[in-house]
């Protein structure tokens, strides 16, 4: 059976967290490495992509697809530090689908990696990079039997949710989205229907959500409601609040598991085999 797995390299939202109280769940911001057979797809380029890039370089992985949900700093901050992008034998495609007309994925990266904010510009990337723009709900055909469906998320400045279908299994990555209480997001429900795994924005809880309306994030309880409605088997709590230390996240994970047996909180280093019976820790 073809390998289909997702490894968490960064699960933190908004900004990297201090190391001390966050040893279990990790400090780094959004980055998930997805393996589909011989192909490597990276979801978001938060600070977690730095370690991911180093590992891929050492493993001689020379072909990458980087799918960005959006370009808030916590999702792109690691991009200038991805070692394979500085190697001329590497080919990479970087996708963005949240930008307004008049800008593009390439322009967005050029504006971000630019003096005086940063001394290195994308011109110094030696890899062959193809910057790709798309508009949700477009489906991206990555080849080798990998189809990626997309949907617009409810987030300030826009964001995109992804569903990767491969070898009869599916993984959804839905982060940086705000729900409307009592009104499940139809676009998300369509996207995630019957998926094996959903990684979901659980920055807040239903109890703290009211104070954060308009911030663009969701709760683990909404993740459970969506999972139950759509028949998701494994829900991965993701985009952890920077103030949620190990102790808090362990408690939230236990609460979520009591409500939905297939819930697990993302921690750096966790690998999920998509479609396998992953046992919550
Ligand atoms: Zn974020
Ligand atoms: Zn964001």
Automatic annotation (TrEMBL):
<dbReference type="InterPro" id="IPR001279">
    <property type="entry name" value="Metallo-B-lactamas"/>
</dbReference>
<feature type="domain" description="Metallo-beta-lactamase">
    <location>
        <begin position="28"/>
        <end position="217"/>
    </location>
</feature>
<dbReference type="InterPro" id="IPR036866">
    <property type="entry name" value="RibonucZ/Hydroxyglut_hydro"/>
</dbReference>
<dbReference type="Pfam" id="PF12706">
    <property type="entry name" value="Lactamase_B_2"/>
</dbReference>
<protein>
    <submittedName>
        <fullName>Phosphoribosyl 1,2-cyclic phosphodiesterase</fullName>
    </submittedName>
</protein>
